[in-house]
Amino acid sequence: MPDVMSSSRLVGVGVGPGDPELVTVKGVNALRAADVVVVPVMDTGEVGRAEATVLHYVPQEKILRVVFALNERSDRGRREAAWDAAGERVAELLRTHGSVAFATIGDPNVYSTFTYLAHTIGELVPDVVVETVPGITAMQDLAARSGAVLTEGTEPLTLVPVTAGAAVLKDALAGPGTVVAYKFGRQAAEVAEALRETGRIEDAVWGSALGLDGESIRSAAELDGAALPYLSTLIAPARRDGSRGGKL
Fold first, then answer.
1. 3-state SS track over the chain
2. Average pLDDT over the chain, rounded to whole?
3. Is the entire prediction scored with pTM above 0.85?
């Protein structure tokens, strides 16, 4: 067994929201250069979105599924145990391989599983070099596909995970600038109510499965309270008067 501990590299690679054409050239190169590409799954029999994207660029035999507690929120002890087990598995790989890539949907520094993994690996393998390769985010992809402008001039941009509660989103909608909501599918009714109460629903747009066969992009005004896919994204553009350069 080679001793590669001191030179091991863990690279978090953002592979975008699902469309394989949105993986950057640098991301593809990092995936291909790695000895092993780890993909997070909730069940070892599942092909997740990250893996489906990675398969466009590297062979299946180079990919390793590692189970993460991706949806465990109620039991902290069970979540921590699952994270520890996942960290140990990746640490084992780093002890026998020079380079391990971790593929994550979106960007590895934006609400990513990689953040927690890197923290764990930093304690288990102190000499490992940790790097990230940025990826296209869901809000960028939805903006491009829907025509929604994220920011103009001096407008702020607020990104809210609705897993923190619809009240947090409502507070953001009451302020200036564009508001983007992630993971709002299970609270779609509360989100629609917040948009209506703040007068932001008419210009808002939501999307899910971006770039995939089941893609859906619709006006938020069509939200009827029915639950949506968990990984749904919402853009509520800033209030604008229609003039060019009005926010400069």
1. CCCCHHHCEEEEEECECCCHHHCCHHHHHHHHHCCEEEEEECCCCCCCHHHHHHCCCCCHHHEEEEECCCCCCCCHHHHHHHHHHHHHHHHHHHHHCCEEEEEECECCCCCCHHHHHHHHHHHHCCCCEEEEECCCCHHHHHHHHHCCCCCCCCCCEEEEEHHHCHHHHHHHHCCCCEEEEECCHHHHHHHHHHHHHCCCCCCCEEEECCCCCCCEEEEHHHCCCCCCCCCCEEEECCCCCCCCCCCC
2. 90
3. yes
